[in-house]
């Protein structure tokens, strides 16, 4: 796999005030290595995060990235972009590579609109499993605390 980036954001829905990002997992890599950042919002805060980072060989992530890419390709996106959290998880996943682009929730989160496309219960379950997969990669490989 050439260069790639996977970004998971938990906290994409908001009301009058914009969404508060509670958790971020970001994986960036190329054909050799990947860096992983896992940040969680500290309890009682809207801006302070506990952040951990790590590095891993892309080979170790290859199976998980292939599953993620293939299953995301089968899932619908809200229409228009950012209109509604059609998976009901308050989570956005973005996968960006040279030959594949997929992101739900829009770059600014969801704005309480209504999507003309809705996910089926089966698609919602598949998305939920992919969220667990990405969070698990962050928990497994991002082990160094950042100041």
What is the element layout, followed by pairings?
Elements: E1 4-10, E2 23-29, E3 33-41, E4 49-57, H1 58-73, E5 91-97, E6 100-103, H2 121-141, E7 144-145
TL;DR of this structure?
With 147 residues, this protein is an alpha+beta fold.
Rg, rounded, reads 15 Å
Structural class category = alpha+beta
CATH topology: Mago nashi protein
Can you name the CATH architecture? 2-Layer Sandwich
Q: β content, as a range?
A: 25-35%
Spans of at least 5 consecutive residues whose pLDDT stays below 50 are none
- Order of strands side by side in the largest beta sheet? 6-5-1-2-3-4-7
Number of alpha- plus pi-helical segments: 2
The ordered string of helix (H) and strand (E) elements is: EEEEHEEHE
Characterization of the model:
With 147 residues, the chain is an alpha+beta fold. It has one domain (4-145): 2-Layer Sandwich (Mago nashi protein), CATH 3.30.1560. It has two helices and seven strands, in the order E-E-E-E-H-E-E-H-E. The chain has helices spanning 58-73, 121-141, and strands at residues 4-10, 23-29, 33-41, 49-57, 91-97, 100-103, 144-145. The protein has a seven-stranded antiparallel β-sheet with strand order 6-5-1-2-3-4-7, with helices on one face. Strand 5 and strand 6 (100-103) form a beta hairpin. Helix 1 (58-73) packs antiparallel against helix 2. The longest helix has 21 residues, at 121-141. It is globular, with a radius of gyration of 15 Å. The chain starts with a strand and ends with a strand. The model has no long low-confidence stretch (mean pLDDT 92).
């Amino acid at each position: 796999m050439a260069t790639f980036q996977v970004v998971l954001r938990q906290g994409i829905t908001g009301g009058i005030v914009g969404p508060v990002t509670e958790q971020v997992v970001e994986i960036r890599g190329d054909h050799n290595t990947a860096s992983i950042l896992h940040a969680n919002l500290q309890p009682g805060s809207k801006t302070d995060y506990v952040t951990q980072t790590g590095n891993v060989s892309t080979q170790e992530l290859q199976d998980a990235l292939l599953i993620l890419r293939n299953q995301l390709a089968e899932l619908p996106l809200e229409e228009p972009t950012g209109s509604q959290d059609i998976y009901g998880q308050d989570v956005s996943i973005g996968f960006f590579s040279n030959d594949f682009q997929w992101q739900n929730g829009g770059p600014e989160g969801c704005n309480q609109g209504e999507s003309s496309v809705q996910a089926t219960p089966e698609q919602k379950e598949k998305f939920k499993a992919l969220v667990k997969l990405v969070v698990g990669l962050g928990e497994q490989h991002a082990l160094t605390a950042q100041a």
